[in-house]
Specification:
The chain is of the alpha+beta class and 253 residues long. The chain has helices spanning 13-26, 39-46, 50-62, 115-121, 164-170, 177-185, 203-209; strands spanning 66-69, 73-76, 91-92, 102-112, 128-140, 143-155, 191-201, 215-226, 230-240, 245-246. Helix 1 (13-26) packs across helix 3 (50-62) and helix 2 (39-46) packs across helix 3 (50-62).
Amino acid sequence: MNLSYTTVNRSPLYQQARQILLKRIESKEWAPGDKLPIEPVLAQQLGISVGTLRRAVETLVNDGLLLRREGIGTFVRTYKNAGYWNVFQIFKDKEGKPRCSFWKLVSFEKVKANPTIATALQVPVNEPLIHFVRHWIDRKNGTETVVSIDESYLIASYFKGLNKRKLLEDFQENDSLYRFYDREFDVVILNQKCSIQYEVLEGDEAKSFKVIDPYPVLRTDRISLTFGHKPIEYRINRGFVDATKIFFDLACI
């Protein structure tokens, strides 16, 4: 006797609705910045009540994928109209103020993923990456001091057309990198995984980063993820210890 089995989805209805909404976002049926249909229309499309839809939407708002604007509607998360806003900015100076005045590009190159970076970004070894290094500079009384080194590895396929010239010419005065990624490449950073350690740059390493020797830093390794929990950037920030304090605002869920 042949038996056929049907898989029964026993998850709550709002979670099933959440998965449908999530797939539309991840497939870019709704692109970053797009406004979702009004609740009665969307609920009717999904065949659920408005209350169930609101619960599903709320989970995506809490996860940072959607953004509610009072009296306007619900939108897919974007940085495009948010100025420098960067929810992931954890660095300040020891007085709690911004550490720097501006940044300078130190290097820009195409590289292949080494085993460590490949593992972090969940790509094969030798995957094409974009690698660039920036100095964050503090200027006081005519003197410039490198207070931070930002080193970024990006999966090249997500940032087609990004080169040194584009980074320098199309990066706007009030941009963060994430706003730049969003506007120019439709890549929205939603989550990060971070680790912190103490490090001293000396000898050839200090020379390669063009900083004083020795250069003691608080090193933060950050894996940045977009929709679908896909890692697309590995960033190493090295903040000079005399000019860096790290702030965390951890919510209990």
